[in-house]
Structures are given as C-alpha cells and as structure tokens.
Amino acid sequence: MSRLPLIEPEALPPYMKAIHDATPEENWLGRHFARAFAPAEDLVQAYQGFYHPWHTGGAGVLPPRLKELIRLRIATLN
To answer: Measured on CA atoms in the order 13, 34, 28, 54, is the torsion positive or negative?
Structure first.
C-alpha cells in the first residue's frame, strides 16, 4: 500500500505522463513512480539530468569498464 497519494494518469504533468506512458504496463514500479513523484516533477528532472548521463555512459563520463572496476572495488570493500 502506497503512503504517497498516487495521481491519476490523466492528471499527470506532461513530463511525468511521458515517463508513465513509456513504461511497459507490466512494470508496476516504473508506472507508479511517475504517479507518486508527479508533485515533485522538478526533482525528478534534476535527478534524471544528473543520473542518466552517468548511467548510460554519455560523453565526458567514466568509460563502462572503469565504472565496473569501481563497482567491483566497492563490493570488495563492503
């Protein structure tokens, strides 16, 4: 049971509606993410602006091999 009020898909702001509609219907978490965070759309945009380039290996970030070596080192330390 969600403790955050879920906004109906028809009432989502355009950015969050695009996320909701692009997520496959069987992905419950992805679809409800857009509904739960709709009141904080600017927070989601800022987070994705930071996270997406690092996660996808965009220009000017660490190469995938180095990121994996860092993950392995962190796992070893943990």
So the answer is: positive
Closest CA to 33 of 60, 7, 53, 54: 7
Handedness of CA 51, 67, 63, 20 (dihedral sign): negative
Tens of pLDDT, residues 5-47: 889 999 999 999 999 999 999 998 888 999 999 999 999 999 8
Joined together, the tokens standing for residue 62 give 């660490």
- Are 45 and 15 spatial neighbours (Cβ–Cβ below 8 Å)? yes
Burial class (CB in 10 A: 0-12, 13-18, 19+), 52: exposed
Specify whether the CB–CB gap between 7 and 35 falls below 8 A.
yes
